[in-house]
Amino acid sequence: MNFVATLMKLAQLRRVQKGKRYVASFQIACGDCFFCKRKLSSQCEKTNSNTTERAMYGGRSAGMFGYSQFMGGFAGGQAEYVRVPLGDVNLSDVLPASYNAVHDTAVYPGDKVAIFGAGPIGQMPGIFGTKTGATKIIFVDTEPRLTIIRNHWPAGHTDKLELIDYRKLSFGVTNRPAIVSKLKELCSGRDLDAAIECAALDPLQIVSHCVRMEDLDKVYYRFENREDSMQEVFAETKFSLAACQGCLKRMNY
Q1: Is 118 exposed, middle or buried (0-12, 13-18, 19+ CB in 10 A)?
Q2: pTM above 0.70?
Q3: Which end of the chain offers a freer environment for a tag, N or C, measured as fewer CB atoms within 10 Å?
Q4: Distant-in-sequence, close-in-space partners of 202: CB < 8 Å, separation ≥ 6
């Protein structure tokens, strides 16, 4: 599982700093083996010593946080402290998600690209897209994000920028302008070359319970038995930030 945490203690790390918040990858990579050098870090050869997976499937994946002994036996992120092996490789921020969105989608020179969601994660694929040679970057979102994009867009690429406010368009079965027809219009009647989805999900829409870390043992049994309509659970620790507006009230078990 991915998790976000404040770095409390360093062990000969060079690229990260104590006291800053980082995202930890769910997989654990060494950064130096055959697969890591080919950017296939989920197949890292050095971070999962479990032999059962190799015996069953002829190979094994990288070690992963919170996925039992089968994936290396590393404790997960539902904890007050987590030990992150090879922190220089496995701690990062959200920027790589934007970078990989462009390069994994394979945006080529001359492409017309639509980005659905113009928040922080969506803004950067637009920038990376221009650097790959895309000729048109189309953001689909609404205000105030579209204005923010316009005001912060690189001056040298203004001719490539297009903004679509989905709230001003129709949807479903209709003969009025809709997102699809607008995209066709901006692409000279043709389809997009690439589409990147960066729409954020409000976590409060999916979190069903807020519990104390001390109650997790009881919560796991309730979750397994499908009690209390549990869906996604937020575990509050002594390091958790103050609850935001609209957060669920913490339950004690």
Answers
A1: buried
A2: no
A3: N
A4: none
Write out the two tokens for 150: 């316009």
State how far the Cα of 66 lies from the Cα of 83, in Å rounded to an integer.
12
DSSP-assigned beta bridge partners for residue 195: 114
| Residue whose pair of structure tokens reads 């003969």 in the numeric block | 175
User: Which pLDDT tens digit goes with each residue over 17-43?
Assistant: 888 888 888 899 999 999 999 988 889
219 CB-contact burial (10 Å; exposed 0-12 / middle 13-18 / buried 19+): buried
pLDDT in tens, 182-226: 999 999 999 999 999 988 667 777 788 999 989 989 998 998 898
Angle between helices 145-152 and 120-131 (to 10 degrees): 40
Q: How far is CA 46 from CA 37, 71, 84, 135, in A?
A: 12, 12, 15, 41
In 3D, which of 119, 131, 64 has the Cα closest to residue 94? 119
Instruction: Indicate the angle between helix axes 95-105 and 120-131, nearest 10 degrees.
Output: 50
Residue with tokens 């070359």: 193
pLDDT for position 1? 61
Q: How far is residue 200's CA from residue 118's CA, in Å, rounded to a whole number?
A: 9
Coil vs helix vs strand at 125? helix
